Amino acid sequence: MTSGLQRATLIFGLALIALFVLAAIFAPLLAPYGFSQIQSDGVDFVRQQAPSAQHWFGTSVRGEDVFSRVLFGARTALYVIVTSLVLSLLVGVPLGLVSGYVGRWLDRVLVLFMDAMYAFPTLLLAIVVSIVVAGGTSSSFGGVLSAAVAITAIFVPQYFRVVRNATVAVKQEPYVDAARVTGASTARILFRHILANVTQSLPVIVTLNGAEAILTLAGLGFLGFGIEPTQAAEWGYDLNKAISDVSNGIWWTGIFPGVAIVLVVLGMTLVGESLNEVLNPLLRTRRTARPTTVGSDVVVGESGAPDMAVATEDSGADLSKESRAE
Predict the structure, then answer these.
(1) Based on the number of CB atoms within 10 Å of its own CB, is 316 exposed (0-12), middle (13-18) or buried (19 or more)?
(2) Which of 46, 113, 237, 245 would be a feasible disulfide site paired with 250, CB 3.0-4.6 Å?
(3) What distances in angstroms separate CA 92 from CA 38, 200, 212, one per listed residue?
(4) What pLDDT is stored for residue 143 in this prediction?
(5) String of b and e for 198-225 (b: at least 16 CB within 10 Å)?
(6) Cα distance between residue 133 and residue 118, in whole Å
(7) E-strand spans in the chain?
(8) pLDDT grade for 282, boundaries at 50, 70 and 90
(9) What pLDDT is stored for residue 23 in this prediction?
(10) CA distances from 278 to 1, 10, 34, 264, 288 (A)
(11) pLDDT score of 135
(12) CB atoms within 10 A of CB 197
C-alpha cells in the first residue's frame, strides 16, 4: 500500500525503531560495562576521557562509560514507552467508549475532566504526577513507574477524545441498533461491535505518542525529576549533567545521548506519518499508472479514473471531421 518516498520513509523509520528495540533488549550483552560502573579490575576509569578503544563514546563526569549508558538508556526508554502506552490504552479507550455510548451526565462529567487535564501544559502535568507517584523514592522500579504514570496522564485525554468522538458517530448505525434489538448487553455492544470500528486511527496515535513519550521522559530527566543515575540509565539526566562539559570542549558526554533521542523520535515520527497516509483514505498515496488508450478513446490517468479531457478532445476532433465532410 506504499510506494516511492512514502515507502522509503516507512522503511527507514522501521529500521530506526528496530535498532532501538534491539539495543534495548540486548543492552546487557552489547554494553561493555554496567550503566553505573566507574572502575574495572579495581582501577577507576578516567573521568571525562575522550572516545577511545576502551571507551567508544568516552566517559562522563562521574567516570561512567557513555556507550554503556546510551545502551541501557534505550532499555529504560523502552520500559517507559511500553508501560505508558499500555496504561493509556487500558484507561482512555474504555472511558471513551462508555462516555460516547452512554452520554447524558456521565459524558459531560468525563469530557469536562479530560478537557481540564488536556488544558494543563504536558511537561508540568508530568512533573506533578511524577512527584506524587514517586513519593520521594528513586528506585529503578519506582522511577520507571512514576515516569510511565506521569506520561500516561498526558496520553489518556487524547485516546479518550478520539474514541469518544468516534463512538458518538457510530452508535446510531444499523449494526449497533440490530445488536441492541437482539438483546446484546452494553458491554458486548461496546467491545464486540463498536470497538473494532472506532480504533482505526489508534495505531497512528500510538506511534506518535511513543515519540512524545521519549521527549517527555527526557524532559523529566533533564529537569531532575527522572531516575537516579545509580538506579537506571536515562538520556535526559545525562544531557543535564553534560551542560557544564560543553563550555570546556567536552562534547561526547552530551552528543551521544542527544543523538539517541533524535534518532528514536525521528523513527517513530516517520512511521506514524507513513501509517497516517496509509490508513487515511484522503492522504493515501496511490501508485501512478502509465496512461493507456482504451478502445473507446478514453485514457486512464494516474488515479485510475478516465481522463475526460482527452476523451472530450478526441470527440471534438471527430465532430469537426464530420462537419467538414458535410
Answers:
(1) exposed
(2) 245
(3) 43, 15, 17
(4) 67
(5) bbeebebbbbbbbbbbbbbbbbbbbeeb
(6) 19
(7) 39-40, 43-44, 292-293, 299-300, 306-307
(8) low
(9) 92
(10) 7, 10, 42, 21, 15
(11) 64
(12) 14
